[in-house]
Amino acid sequence: xxxxxxxxxxxxxxxxxxxxxxxxxxxxxxxxxxxxxxxxxxxxxxxxxxxxxxxxxxxxxxxxxxxxxxxxxxxxxxxxxxxxxxxxxxxxxxxxxxxxxxxxxxxxxxxxxxxxxxxxxxxxxxxxxxxxxxxxxxxxxxxxxxxxxxxxxxxxxxxxxxxxxxxxxxxxxxxxxxxxxxxxxxxxxxxxxxxxxxxxxxxxxxxxxxxxxxxxxxxxxxxxxxxxxxxxxxxxxxxxxxxxxxxx
Amino acid sequence: xxxxxxxxxxxxxxxxxxxxxxxxxxxxxxxxxxxxxxxxxxxxxxxxxxxxxxxxxxxxxxxxxxxxxxxxxxxxxxxxxxxxxxxxxxxxxxxxxxxxxxxxxxxxxxxxxxxxxxxxxxxxxxxxxxxxxxxxxxxxxxxxxxxxxxxxxxxxxxxxxxxxxxxxxxxxxxxxxxxxxxxxxxxxxxxxxxxxxxxxxxxxxxxxxxxxxxxxxxxxxxxxxxxxxxxxxxxxxxxxxxxxxxxxxxxxxxxxxxxxxxxxxxxxxxxxxxxxxxxxxxxxxxxxxxxxxxxxxxxxxxxxxxxxxxxxxxxxxxxxxxxxxxxxxxxxxxxxxxxxxxxxxxxxxxxxxxxxxxxxxxxxxxxx
Lengths: 248, 368
What we know:
- Chain A is α/β, with parallel strands linked by helices.
- In chain A, 36% of the residues lie in helices and 28% in strands.
- In chain A, a hairpin with a 2-residue loop joins strand 4 (61-66) and strand 5 (69-70).
- By secondary structure, chain B is an alpha/beta fold.
- Chain B folds into 2 domains: 11-39 and 172-367, no CATH class; 47-163, abc type-2 transporter like domain (abc type-2 transporter like fold), CATH 3.40.1710.
- In chain B, strands 2-1-3-4-5 form a 5-stranded mixed β-sheet, with helices on both faces.
- The relative contact order of chain B is 0.10.
- Chain A binds chain B through residues 54-58, 76, 79-80, 82, 84-95, 99, 102-104, 106-109, 161, and chain B through 2-3, 6-7, 9-10, 13-14, 17-18, 201-203, 205-213, 367-368.
């Protein structure tokens, strides 16, 4: 982790929907190559904040720089520099593995030759060479998910946003998925990830925990456990979640 | 541009790999056209006919014999007076009245011509039209027969009058009607479903995060259906012409231009529907109830608008196919030029612009 280089810088971010404040004065930095965990109960405002960082939605107010670009003024430039994967895996079931790669790489402006070489390398690495021309719908969930992540970083973005990427998969596959995340992080890609799983929170370099639209805690997992005198992240999370005004 | 072509390619894969889409796209127009075409234009048999013979000579009785022996017509009544015609039609006793003028024989022998009037009940315009052409055929044959070997030929002139629907408005109506239905279905329903599918599967978010502009995404979604709908238009007109003999009397270019305008309208409707629905199911239900049923019921395609209660007649004004059918009918069947359909064209353009405006606004709200 290189704390000199800020990849995401958020100052006083507010997002209001009518009288409801989804994001209440958020300020934080994310550094290059870091795995940044973004935690919170359902409805705490994680997805709203992430959408703003991706340029999918405008903030009500605040100063936000992503990859050195202003999310208000430089959206088009910004979009080329980020990758995104949602909990729905976002690959087309009726296209083959290669067609999916070609399509997504194509809309990021990569050349056909570049796509072909890189796709072959990727399939080799994932052990999916035999499935190159199979439709995504025929693949098991775990493979789809690894592939979706690889496609999200195929165009070599500075930052990748992962929105609950491991929902609904078994622990072994989840562990393998995290290996891919570590690899991306080592390659210098900043990973911004939201999750529900507290064991996954432990894998992050730093985590922030949101309650009712505010960031209640932000530090390394170790420091947080120490601060809240908790034996694991689960306990930290529960202590903070109890502060919520809207109990589920 | 390269990005856009990649996007189009993907869209075509979606369409060609989905059996349901393919069936709706290419199976349905053909099946509907054949169904409507053959159900409406069936064979004639034993059509009830009455005769009002002012001449009562050997020629007229020979003609009547010929007509009856053809098997298509059955003589049910002999009338004495023209005033009985209306009554016999109204009572439904007969579908057709044949009127021979006084001194038919004399006029036919001396020349130059004798006339016979064909009166039909045109409340079922297709049948009426067929009856007339069958009768004209029989009369024509007879005419040739009696003139054989003669130097001076005398003519039997059939004069036709349609009762109850003198302009014969819905003959061949099924081609414009089906064109409107199919274009509506393919363009609006298929685009709205295909955009809703991207939303449902979560791929829309990925597309929106990508460097593709929203306009590019929408154009990419819409272009394949524009192309396929255009092909469908050609297929329907071609089949109408070659299988059912439905003519294109007016300008073909104008017909195509108006069709493209209607396709654009249907596509913008599809986009609009997709902006207000988040799943394929909702998009499909909306398209079915908001588009398909009104297109079939309230466009004047099957049921004449004149016969509807006033509120429905007023409501039918906002149904785009209503105007499109008028345009198509005018160009194809009446051969009229743009000067007679500019008002309807303007209405369609206005509707298209309105829908695009609404969709753009909706799309922006969603992005906020």
